[in-house]
Design goal:
By secondary structure, the chain is of the alpha/beta class. It has eleven helices and 14 strands. It has helices at 11-23, 50-54, 107-120, 144-157, 171-177, 191-198, 214-226, 254-261, 270-274, 280-289, 316-332, and strands spanning 2-5, 27-33, 36-42, 59-63, 83-85, 88-90, 96-100, 124-126, 161-164, 180-183, 204-207, 232-236, 266-268, 294-298. The strands form three sheets. Strands 13-12-11-10-9-8-7-14 form an eight-stranded parallel beta sheet. It has a four-stranded antiparallel beta sheet with strand order 2-3-1-4. Bound molecules: phosphoenolpyruvate and manganese (II) ion.
């Protein structure tokens, strides 16, 4: 259930609703949206009915929402959430671009990538230190050394950093080095990891699993929100398809579908969906046209020598061109690129 208070409701009206929920064994989660308060009711078997809540002073309405996610539900914050990564707001009107290599490989490679994407117009640097590779014989990332290099790249360029965390035990170390924790597609339903990032004070970029429904993705987000971390950004990155011409099948429809269901910001990763650098710009343009709040794009200074995902990596020059194109699409929709 989600309780929407009247705009005229007083603080003690809100407090009465919260205590009524808690006395009956539920947990109340308060959100201020515009000038109205919204209260999410969490917990199983809460002994309170919508009728009892709607009769309390100051309550505008009580809505039954899909039981499986409430805090992620659009009703909880109807105007949409803005989640800041460092000082860059994701969500709202401006478009945000995250870019960088698939994997951190060396100091020189990361700095060249970081400077290249910053000049091309990126706001946030991406790069994996812990890599969830399909084969155990592929490059697995530099681990803690990669985190150190990311922190150095952040200091050198001023760009906030997003990087993947794969294990609950690494959350603290990754959160120290980075501004945003990425949960990869393969870990979207790793509930211990979701709980662990939910206890962090860093924003979380939650990628959609490669065969996950939109509802499963939102329930994964709910795990994080239910732990108290309100800063979740969703990322569509393509689903397992049947046609080998692309690596995955970009679900462009997931953008407006998720937009309807949730208040969380939604970005798109055209790189892993395409798996092929020539196709990345078209998917990026489509994502922005469909209403995404931004993109995460793989860029490498020398894609042909990349230790992971080279075929889908853009050069910094190609990235700058992509930025011009998506900026034009965004402008046509009244959504300019975020200006620092
Ligand atoms: C990545 O961002 O490099 C990555 C591994 O993505 P995904 O989890 O979407 O496959
Ligand atoms: Mn990659």
């Amino acid at each position: 259930m989600v309780v929407t208070m009247r705009r005229s409701a007083q603080a003690d009206d809100v407090a009465r609703v919260v205590s009524t929920i808690e006395v009956s064994g539920g947990t109340a989660r308060l959100s201020r949206t515009g000038s109205a308060a919204v209260i999410g009711v969490l917990g199983e078997g809460v002994g309170i009915t919508p009728e009892a809540l709607v009769s309390l002073p100051g309550v505008e309405r009580v809505t039954a929402v899909d039981k499986s996610y409430r805090l992620a539900h659009r009703l909880f914050r109807p105007e949409g959430s803005v989640v800041a990564i460092g000082d860059v707001p994701v969500g709202g009107n401006g478009l945000v671009l995250m870019a960088g290599p698939c994997a951190v490989e060396s100091e020189a490679q990361l700095l060249a990538a970081a400077q290249g994407v910053r000049e091309g117009g990126a706001h946030i640097l991406r790069g994996g230190a812990f890599k969830p590779r399909t084969s155990p014989y592929s490059f697995q990332g530099l681990g803690r050394e990669g985190l150190r290099l990311l922190a150095a790249a952040r200091a050198a360029t001023g760009m906030p950093v997003v990087t993947e965390v794969m294990e609950p035990s690494e959350v603290e170390a990754v959160a120290e080095a980075a501004d945003c924790l990425q949960v990869g597609a393969r870990n979207m339903q790793n509930t211990p990891l979701l709980r662990a990032v939910g206890q962090s004070d860093r924003p979380v970029l939650l990628k959609r699993g490669l065969a996950a429904t939109v509802d499963e993705w939102l329930q994964a987000a709910e795990y994080i929100l239910a732990q108290g971390n309100e800063r979740v950004i969703l990322c569509e990155r393509g689903l397992r398809g049947f046609d080998g011409h692309t690596r995955f099948l970009l679900d462009v429809s997931a953008v407006p579908v998720a937009r309807r269901l949730t208040h969380l910001p939604i970005i798109v990763d055209p790189s892993h969906a395409a798996g092929d650098r020539e196709l990345v710009p078209a998917l990026a343009r489509a994502a922005i046209a469909a209403g995404a709040d931004g993109l995460i794009v793989e860029v490498h200074p020398t894609p042909d020598t990349a230790l992971s995902d080279g075929p889908q990596a853009l050069t910094p020059t190609a990235f700058a061109h992509l930025v011009e194109e998506v900026s034009a699409v965004g402008a046509a929709l009244g959504r300019p690129l975020h200006q620092a």
